[in-house]
Amino acid sequence: MSHDDQAVRLPLPARGPLDAPDAWKRLRERCPVATVELPSGDSGALLTRYDDVKALLSDPRFAHPTAEDASARLAPEEAGGSSADGTLSLGLPLTGEAHLRWRRRVVRYFTAKRMTELRPVIVDITESLVGGMVASGRPADLKAALAFPLPVHVICDLLGAPPDERDRFSHWSDAFLNVTRFSRRQTAAAHGEFAAYMSGLIAAKRADPGEDVLSMLITQSRAEADGLSDDELRGIGMALLVAGHETTANMIGKMVAMLLADRTRWERLLADPSLVRRAVDEVLRFDANLGGFGIRRYIGEDVRIGGETLPGGTTVFCGLSSANRDEQVFADPDRLDLDRSPNPHLAFGAGPHACLGQSLARIELQVVLEVLLRTLPDLDLAVPVHELRQIRGLEVGGLSEVPVRW
Hints:
Layout: E1 8-9, H1 23-30, E2 33-37, E3 43-47, H2 50-57, H3 96-107, H4 112-117, H5 119-135, E4 140-141, H6 142-147, H7 149-159, H8 166-177, H9 184-207, H10 213-223, H11 230-244, H12 246-261, H13 263-271, H14 276-286, E5 295-299, E6 303-305, E7 308-310, E8 314-318, H15 320-323, H16 358-375, E9 380-381, E10 403-405
Parallel strand pairs: 1-2, 3-8
Antiparallel strand pairs: 2-3, 4-10, 5-8, 6-7, 9-10
Helix pairs in contact: 5-7, 5-16, 7-8, 7-11, 8-9, 9-11, 12-16, 14-16
């Protein structure tokens, strides 16, 4: 691997909580396959160019590292996580035909059409949460009042779980994704609690199917010779919570902060709400905190990428946020451009592991923006941008609070 005299230490410093590290541009130009050192002391490789990141993510041979093959941990040994690198095992195969088997079944549910049918429900939930935030008075923490609870409501709805379970879902999600706040024991306990809960929910759905994703998968499996097992159904349910809750919650908070950081952006959307869809994709591209250090891939064999040979046994961090600022793909990439189209960003990954719920995530973000623009046109940040605080330790990246006024 090429490097500039020594390994690059992660996390890379940035000037402000919403800013991209200056080092990304230098790495893309001079060191697109960089040796990096993690807070744990382990090392890996970091890809920063769009074409390299997309190529590796699209390669079906490579998946997220497991406890057995991870060569790099995100955090020191005493930190959270139920496997060697701080990741959570959900019991689902991540490569090969077995991976495609369960993914093909789930993707049947997450169609753009079905997700669009959920829009009225998401609008109702969002309006209710915004109403509650307004009733509680200003200033408010938009993340606590809206961004965090909304995806939990939606995930509970998707899984057919009672809405009053959302506080438990929130705790489980946080325990799975925060690699420093929770100990291994706490993470393992949360894993066990949620696995037991999901087993009970699956049994209830078998006895009395509904319109939710678990019921649909159970019904499908009854009609197919190689239907999904209860272990696979449980893993899918847990994966939907982990992938669909905290990632979207943090993106809602960051989206609103980015659009309010420069008031002219908000005013532009107020003047032309038809820009909301493009705005959502542009903030996804512009986000400097996608997936923490980047999406991880374990390289089980030598692979040629970016003009370098990555040896088998390497953990590679695919820098989505850096790739989305690549000057070779995006004109004026460090400007948040509400008119940008097309916008082939990699915020949802690429290839066989691309985010299954991206249609749902886009709809949630669009609805939040539409409701806020309509009901709180005077919305503004209650603190200067530089006072916003980033969450430390969370793999998906985010702001700890988003203080707003109106």
